[in-house]
Amino acid sequence: MKSKLAILSLAIAVPTAALAQDSLQVVDNTEYPNTFSSGSANVQRFNQSSKRFNDWSISFGAGVPLMQSADLTSIKNGNGKNLFGYSAYFSVDKAITHAFGLKLQYDRGETRQGWFNTKDDAPANASVTQQVGARTQYDAISLLGDINFSNLLRRVDNKSPYRWALHGYAGVGTLAYRAYQKDEFGQRLMTEVKPFSGFSFFGQAGAGLKYKISNRVDLEGRVMYVVTTDDQFDGGGEQYSAINRREDQVSDNFFNATLGLSINLGRHDSHLMWHDPLQEIYYKMDVLESKVNDLEVCKSGDADNDGVCDDWDRQLDTPAGARVDGAGVALDVDMDGVIDLYDKCVTVPGPVENQGCPTGPTNNTGGMVSEAETKLDGIEFDLNSDKILPSNTPILNNAVNYINSSNGSYTVIGATDTRGTEAYNQNLSEKRARNVRDYLVRNGVEASKLNSKGNGKKDLKYPECDPASKCPEWKNRANRRVYFEAK
């Protein structure tokens, strides 16, 4: 079965090589004034012409405002009625990212409220119950922040395009209004006029649900809550009138429910607020997968059926079932010369004759070891070094105990691999043997029981490693050793 790992490695390697070649080209800034070299590829500067999404739009709509928190209300007032006004809005919208934007919005409308029983507020000598109604015509300019929750909270594994989006809005602005009240004769009296000024701040916040009709047009329903910061907005009259003393509000607030359209402006097909950044990643993965699938059909053939075309395959006789790298070479994780397919110990080096697993203890002649040789395990050294490694001290401490408990004497023998000259290796092997002998003496072994010698690069545990390049490194390391021989 073909290895997907090998195909993917090859697919990535080919475009990478192409990029490396591109980095050698010189960019003519006269012909491409917005292009520069980053060292590995030509990069186009970001400017207006490089944008791929529309980020401007206009929105407009109409709706119904309902006074909610005031002395005169629109919802279920004292007379049990709901009074509906009207409103309209227009905004210019700028998308900053796929999840955040700004709106400069103008609102115009009229709230209708009142019709409550004023009997409790009438003077003591009043003989009739009063009914009061009011209307407030307003104009407002505000700056709103727009958060696209659907893009902000979109799951990374959701690859499907979407047509619905939940937005949240909040902002502040300035407000102007004219409030009217009807008296008992039905005549309309102006109770308050407040023009635009630098101190007439108000705030609004809410949510909207958008539906994508097309790439150019969105339909949206919104519900906004408007805080006027003004106790006379409802038309109840001056601050200390009988009406405005009914409640303790310092701000008359209302809901504004609207339905509107957004028109996306620009020459591109889609708007940034409808863009899912991960869609580009999904697309690139699909393109890469298609290229990988194309590589499965090799014009030059695949003789060993390892998933790498013969034109790219450095090992045309890979055994069936073997895992391969991007060049079609069978994997050998522990680099012991036995490929993983046949290696019984994949992560531990071992000889070919033992199916890639470490062998049991043997002596230099290949025979079974004696009890002394088992107790006196040899140690290995780093390349060009006679330093005893910390990992070898437990082995040498065990040798101290064994030699002190025995009656015999021993020779400490040093050896090297085949790298370097004969004279250099002879000297290095003698230093290794002498350092081990000195360690044993310092730790309690009688000096009379030990002598040392070096055999240079002629004493190989693995004779086939001459030269060293013929063997994996674990075999060469095994040749760089010190071992013990009974006299």
Automatic annotation (TrEMBL):
Domain (OmpA-like): residue spans on this chain: 368-487
Keywords recorded for this protein, A-Z: Cell outer membrane, Ion transport, Membrane, Porin, Signal, Transmembrane, Transmembrane beta strand, Transport
Where is this chain primarily localised?
membrane
Q: Which domain of life is it from?
A: Bacteria
Q: Where would you find this protein in the cell?
A: Cell outer membrane
**GO terms for CC?**
cell outer membrane; pore complex
InterPro entries from the UniProt entry: Bact_OuterMem_StrucFunc, OMP/PagP_B-barrel, OMP_bac, OmpA-like, OMPA-like_CS, OmpA-like_sf, TSP_type-3_rpt
Q: How does the entry describe its membrane topology?
A: Multi-pass membrane protein
| Stretch forming the signal peptide | 1-20
| Gene Ontology BP annotations | monoatomic ion transport
- Which SUPFAM superfamilies does this one have? OmpA-like, OMPA-like, TSP type-3 repeat
Q: What Gene Ontology terms describe what this protein does at the molecular function level?
A: calcium ion binding; porin activity
Pfam name, any one? OmpA
Fetch the PANTHER family from UniProt: LIPOPROTEIN YIAD-RELATED, STATOR ELEMENT OF FLAGELLAR MOTOR COMPLEX
Protein name stated in the entry = OmpA-OmpF porin, OOP family
Species in which this protein is naturally found? Chryseobacterium taihuense
